[in-house]
């Protein structure tokens, strides 16, 4: 199981470190308040990102996850993201 750590770096930017199978990947993700309200209104940004990365890791290896992206981009690659993340965060 992967370890996911989220750290705010300011201006809606967050660094997400993923440690899996002896390898660490770093990702910079922008999450606006609007994104949080849309995808996880009752969750913190950190919780939203942790669960979003779990979602991604179920579908691809950490090395395939973009190194820098805005959170809504996930839905462009995985159309089921919005409904699934909202269900997970209830």
What proportion of the residues form beta strands (DSSP E)? 25-35%
Overall pLDDT confidence: 97
Walk across the major sheet and give the strand order.
1-2-3-4
Query: Which shape, going by the Cα principal axes?
Result: globular
- Structural class of the helix and strand makeup? alpha+beta
Estimate nothing, just give the exact number of structural domains. 1
pLDDT below 50 for ≥5 consecutive residues: which ranges? none
User: Span between N and C termini?
Assistant: 22 Å
Alpha carbon gyration radius: 12 Å
Count of DSSP E strands?
A: 4
- Main sheet, how many strands, which sense, barrel? 4 strands, mixed
Fraction of residues in helix: 25-40%
What letter string, H or E per element, gives the SSE order? Answer: EEEHHEHH
Number of helices: 4
């Amino acid at each position: 199981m992967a370890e996911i750590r989220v750290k705010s770096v300011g201006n809606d930017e967050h660094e997400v470190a993923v440690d899996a199978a002896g390898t660490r990947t770093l990702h910079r993700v922008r999450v606006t308040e609007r994104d949080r309200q849309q995808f996880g209104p009752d969750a913190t940004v950190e919780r939203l990102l942790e669960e979003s990365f779990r979602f991604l890791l179920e579908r691809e290896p950490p090395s395939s996850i973009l190194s820098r992206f805005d959170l809504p981009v996930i839905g462009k690659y995985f159309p089921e993201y919005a409904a699934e993340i909202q269900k997970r965060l209830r």
